[in-house]
């Protein structure tokens, strides 16, 4: 049974890999090369981080409003905070997905580049292309490390938000709200740190895109 599952997993992986290769091949035929796709995907990853920044800030604001609750519909305030938490979770998932796509096309681009360098007969051109490849890879590695570093800050924040939402779900009263107020300052600090890290990553993305477009 385990062997069968492994074979299925391998087949699916090969199929997905083949689909990606076919996609890149089809795009290249219409003049849209891996380099272009990479630039677009870095742009999309950057935009997903910007969206996540806004969403985490909104979630923090709604939680702040809930904790500062003073009369009115407590359940309505809770639902708003819960909805913003769920949107923050979706935004975090999107960030991870976009980074995965950047890594996928980068691998394909660098593999192709390395292969084609070997086909250059003139030593000086081969050397120049190798230097450019190495420079691009260094810039890319820095870019992705920054993206992943920012991404890694999101799960602990989401876990804390989820804990608060689950706790309040069955204890929706002023006393329960008071019990989690002590955690708010820490959550606020964590989100501030996340936004700072994302700003660094976004700036790195802009720098990378500019360099790639210059060629």
Automatic annotation (TrEMBL):
InterPro entries for the chain: DUF2959
Coiled-coil intervals, chain numbering: 35-98
Keyword hit for Acetylation: no
Keyword Coiled coil: yes
Keywords: Coiled coil, Signal
Domain of life of the organism encoding this protein: Bacteria
Annotated signal sequence range: 1-22
Protein name: DUF2959 domain-containing protein
Record organism: Shewanella electrodiphila
